[in-house]
Design brief:
It is a single chain. The protein has helices at 4-16, 23-38, 53-58, 61-80, 86-101, 109-127, 303-310, and strands at residues 137-140, 149-154, 160-165, 168-175, 181-184, 188-193, 196-201, 207-212, 224-232, 240-242, 249-253, 258-263, 266-276, 282-287, 291-292, 313-319, 322-327, 333-338. The chain has 341 residues and is α+β, with helices and mostly antiparallel strands. A hairpin with a 5-residue loop joins strand 13 (266-276) and strand 14. Mean pLDDT is 82; it is low at 4-43.
Length: 341
């Protein structure tokens, strides 16, 4: 279901279902299925229609790697969907497989298949909460509660969000924008900039002008301001990179859930949410996508590197008057000192 591998697994399951549950028969079925599920190379591509997309995937190790990854993500989504809507998820996956296989009509078939895997991957990761997410933020669009939109950002690649309005929801992906953060879904779009958003909800619907709802976030990070003094690598060979001009790299945590960022000659903002641990001085921290201006700073500016690192922040530690932000997958530590007034 989730991939070429899982399609074969389901076929094997249907063939095995009528058998009586005798131990030796179950053992034989498991033995037969092991190579099918364990290695992509065991797929018998000779049984597939010549010229089909499945044949192309089987012959391309890069595409097979995407297929194996899809199988794992789909399996994780199925576990989350057990008590929710497993029939719908399976039906959706069958529809996605059909859409992927329609790539034979595309001018660039491989690019079409890669794009199909990429879009389905982030959709499953977001809808079934398989990756970390920011705390939901709420936008008020006019005076009617029916026009409020709640947004949750997910750390996928590319970044996506799920916007909810009443009993409707929309998955949107980040797209290039001259300013702010612009997300586009099937018939919806959201363009956010400095606490305000332009939202279109539905095909040819009028644009709504929205503002970030006034909420307050408390905790040890709220109302604090920092300047970056060092980037510590977990690799001893790389060591620690000391910032030549810490005052040009700052981070402020406002109580309205917005983080204000300065990276050299550029400025921006993002949503933030922290979950303190028992000792309060540490905990989980998530920053939403950082919307930055795009001025050309000095060629040796570390601004782009710091921006990339901010996207990967996962936790914080307050110690000896300094703030340490840890990056995902042991990617390093950003060390901050209190910003000078």
């Amino acid at each position: 279901m989730g991939s070429i591998i899982s399609e074969w697994a389901e076929w094997a399951g249907r063939r095995a279902a009528p058998l009586r549950p005798r131990p030796w028969r179950l053992f034989c079925v498991a033995l037969w299925m092991a190579p099918v599920l364990g290695a992509a190379q065991s797929i018998d591509c000779s049984r597939l229609p010549a010229g089909s997309i499945e044949v192309m995937v089987c012959a391309d190790e890069g595409l097979m790697a995407l297929d194996r990854e899809m199988a794992a993500i789909y399996a994780a989504a199925l576990k989350k969907a057990v008590r929710e809507r497993p029939p719908m998820l399976k039906a959706e996956q069958r529809g996605w497989i059909k859409g992927r296989n329609d790539c034979w009509k595309a001018e660039d078939r491989r690019a079409c298949v890669v794009d199909a895997y990429a879009r389905r991957k982030v959709e499953l990761q977001a809808r079934y909460r398989l990756v970390s997410a920011s705390a939901p933020v709420r936008f008020v669009c006019g005076d009617s509660p029916a026009d409020e939109v709640t947004v949750t950002h997910f750390r996928t690649e590319p970044p996506v969000l799920i916007a909810e309005r009443g009993d409707q929801s929309s998955l949107m992906s980040l797209v290039p924008s001259a300013s702010g953060s612009r997300y586009v879904g099937r018939n919806e779009s959201l363009w956010e900039h400095q606490g305000e958003a332009s939202i279109v909800w539905g095909y040819q619907a009028p644009e709504m002008r929205c503002r970030l709802a006034g909420g307050r976030i408390d905790g040890p990070l709220a109302r604090t301001a920092w300047q970056l003094i060092a980037i510590r690598s977990m690799d001893d060979a790389q060591g620690t990179f000391r910032m030549a001009h810490p005052e040009r790299f700052s981070l402020q945590f406002a109580v309205d859930g917005r983080a204000r960022v300065r990276l050299d000659c550029n400025r921006g903002s993002a949503t933030w949410a922290a979950t303190p641990s028992a000792d309060v001085a540490s905990g989980a921290l998530l920053l939403g996508p950082v919307a930055m201006t795009r001025r050309a700073c000095a060629k040796d500016s570390p601004g782009a590197r710091v921006l990339r690192d901010l996207r990967n922040v996962r936790s914080y530690l307050l110690k000896d008057g300094r703030l340490f932000l840890s990056l995902m997958a042991d990617g390093g530590i950003l060390e901050w000192a209190p910003a000078t007034p």
